[in-house]
């Protein structure tokens, strides 16, 4: 059995490389050649416009940056196979637009006593002299987590392909009280104001189940001293992985450089919770003089905390994209299938579409939106304007490739006062609410939304929908992504996801954008105020068999003010190292 799966994996990866070469710039699936059709059949879950290498295991994004005209993405990768490994490396790809990618040599591999058992996650800081410095976690030969430094071997190589590890490594070892296996994932460093401002970096850690962002400071980026207090910590929250710390503008959706501290910004601290595998964030103020951070909302690890994404999205990291003045967020969407499935597929893990991230004008939450470059992949387009979606109706959106699509839809609601279900949602877990009623459970206003990756008879579908409740403090919008009917296959994690969407449905339309890419469905509600990503593996609704529907199962009609749907072209990625034409 092993030999057979190895052969299938080897064949499909080889076809994969070839297929991406063959379909360069072409529309999916009409121009697919026969090899690509074989690939589709063998690999119906392989995403076409999301980033991942042709084979093996991928997890966290590491050290994303824009440098000298190129976007770099490093990521956790197991070159040995499709499961997480004990010799993890930093793989490396470059791009001009964060959509089409060229695969480079591995950037960091376990070679030295300070990283002999793995090169784990970390970040990049561009220091004066325009030098990108990697700070990463090494698992040393004793299995202890330490922080290390690496820099490009040749700054004039436009791809920065080779990296050198500092002879001063390790530059941080677990401080007193922090266990050797709970000290990891350094952030991009920020510099205090002034010409001689010191460098600051945080590392995830824990002391007696109190999760924390341990603060280190340095004059020269090489010698680091632990500050007296962590930047922030919260008892009972377990290990914090992959922290991220950055400013967001109070009065613009533009991004700002990581070291900016002035009254025009708030600071975001993102925490990846090892206990429940979600990315949470707090918004607060940072005082460089005292190195103190005071969040406006506490992080407790509960369902009321703010999250980047209420589905599968973890270990994320941002960077400041200076030429376009925006902050970009990368996050890992893990598989929801089994280890056996991953062995058979030969791969696991996808990077979610890079998202622009900024503070909402309310100052209360962040907003995310797929980078504008993604629109270049939009192909065949269908549009529906001013259509009534009657109570109990379902209609198919025809004319696009529903397994590989981008959909933007706006719903307009009337009769909220009379029709919304009366229900006080205070203290209610929205995920539980979504779990209590699926899309076929009739409501007052809603459920209405999309049925993605669906079969004709709807025996399989992923339902992304809204319900409106009338609570004691006004109307409440619930957004759900329900995977329970996503596949006729058993043994998959089909957990339904849900979150509230902070909009006023009496005065605002309900907007939904959904990106569908074979086994990943990313949904952005209310212009990116609530995001939910899911991984699904339909048995029948694959490739050209997949369909897309819009439905309304509420008792009142809903209006579609506009629906725009596009087939998405396949991104070029992971071509042989020799081929750099993409970057010209
Ligand atoms: N993944 C890395 C760690 C990090 C975890 C190892 C988060 O550095 O804490 O691959 O997914």
From TrEMBL:
It catalyses: Hydrolysis of terminal non-reducing beta-D-fructofuranoside residues in beta-D-fructofuranosides. Keywords: Glycosidase, Hydrolase, Signal, Vacuole. Residues 1-25 form the signal peptide. One of its GO terms (biological process) is carbohydrate metabolic process. SMART domains: Glyco_32. Transmembrane segments: none annotated. Residues 50-370 form the Glycosyl hydrolase family 32 N-terminal domain. Residues 374-567 form the Glycosyl hydrolase family 32 C-terminal domain. InterPro entries: ConA-like_dom_sf, Fructan_Metab_Enzymes, Glyco_hydro_32, Glyco_hydro_32_AS, Glyco_hydro_32_C, Glyco_hydro_32_N, Glyco_hydro_beta-prop_sf. Its main location: other. Pfam families: Glyco_hydro_32C, Glyco_hydro_32N. GO terms for cellular component: vacuole. It is found in: Vacuole. Gene3D superfamilies: Exo-inulinase, domain 1 (2.60.120.560), Glycosyl hydrolase domain, family 43 (2.115.10.20). One of its GO terms (molecular function) is beta-fructofuranosidase activity. PROSITE patterns: GLYCOSYL_HYDROL_F32. It comes from the Eukaryota. Belongs to the glycosyl hydrolase 32 family. This is Uncharacterized protein. It comes from Linum trigynum.
């Amino acid at each position: 059995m092993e030999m057979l799966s190895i052969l299938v994996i080897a064949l499909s990866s080889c076809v994969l490389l070839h297929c991406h070469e063959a379909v360069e710039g072409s529309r999916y699936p009409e121009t697919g050649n026969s090899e690509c059709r074989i690939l589709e059949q063998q690999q119906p879950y392989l995403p076409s416009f999301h980033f991942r290498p042709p084979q093996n295991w991928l997890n966290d994004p590491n050290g994303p940056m824009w440098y000298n005209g190129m976007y770099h993405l490093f990521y956790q990768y197991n070159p040995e196979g499709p499961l997480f490994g004990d010799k993890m490396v930093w793989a490396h790809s470059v791009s001009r637009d964060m959509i089409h990618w060229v695969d480079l040599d591995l950037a960091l591999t376990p070679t030295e006593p300070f990283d002999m058992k793995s090169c784990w996650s970390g970040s990049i800081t561009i220091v004066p002299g325009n030098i990108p410095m990697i700070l990463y976690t090494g698992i040393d030969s004793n299995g202890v987590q330490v922080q290390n430094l690496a820099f490009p071997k040749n700054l004039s190589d436009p791809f920065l392909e080779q990296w050198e590890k500092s002879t001063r490594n390790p530059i941080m070892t677990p401080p007193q009280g922090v266990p050797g296996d709970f000290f990891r994932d350094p952030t991009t460093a920020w510099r205090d104001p002034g010409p001689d401002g010191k460098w600051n970096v945080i590392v995830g850690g824990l002391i007696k189940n109190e999760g924390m962002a341990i603060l280190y400071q340095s004059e020269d980026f090489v010698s680091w001293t632990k500050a007296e207090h962590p930047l922030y910590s919260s008892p009972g929250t377990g290990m914090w992985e992959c922290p991220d710390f950055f400013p967001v503008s109070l009065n613009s959706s533009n991004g700002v450089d990581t070291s900016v501290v002035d009254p025009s910004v708030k600071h975001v601290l993102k925490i990846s919770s090892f206990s429940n595998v979600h990315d949470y964030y707090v918004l607060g103020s940072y005082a460089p003089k005292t190195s103190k951070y005071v969040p406006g909302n506490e992080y407790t690890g509960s369902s009321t905390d703010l999250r980047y994404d209420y589905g599968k999205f973890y270990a994320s990291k941002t960077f400041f994209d200076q030429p376009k003045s925006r902050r970009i967020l990368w996050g890992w969407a893990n598989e929801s299938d089994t280890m056996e499935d991953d062995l058979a597929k030969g791969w696991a893990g996808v990077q979610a579409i890079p998202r622009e991230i900024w503070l909402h004008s309310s100052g209360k939450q962040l907003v995310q939106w797929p980078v504008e470059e993604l629109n270049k992949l939009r192909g065949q387009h269908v549009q529906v304007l001013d259509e009534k979606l009657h109570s109990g109706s379902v209609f198919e959106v025809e004319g696009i490739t529903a397994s590989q699509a981008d959909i933007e839809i706006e719903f307009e609601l009337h009769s909220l006062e009379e029709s919304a279900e009366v229900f006080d949602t205070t203290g209610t877990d929205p995920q539980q609410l979504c779990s209590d009623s699926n899309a076929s459970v009739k409501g007052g206003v809603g459920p209405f939304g999309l049925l993605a990756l669906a079969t004709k008879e709807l025996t399989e579908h992923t339902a992304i929908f809204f319900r409106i409740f009338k609570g004691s403090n006004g109307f409440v919008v619930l957004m759900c992504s329900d995977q329970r009917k996503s596949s006729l296959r058993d043994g998959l994690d089909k957990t339904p996801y849900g979150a509230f969407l902070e909009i006023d449905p009496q005065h605002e339309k309900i907007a939904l954008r959904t990106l569908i890419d074979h086994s990943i469905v990313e949904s952005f509600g209310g212009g990116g105020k609530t995001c939910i990503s899911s991984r699904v593996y339909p048995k029948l609704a694959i490739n050209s068999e997949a369909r897309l529907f819009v439905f309304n199962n509420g008792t009142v009609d809903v209006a579609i003010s506009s629906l725009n749907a596009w087939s998405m072209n396949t991104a070029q990625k992971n071509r042989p190292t020799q081929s750099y034409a993409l970057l010209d």
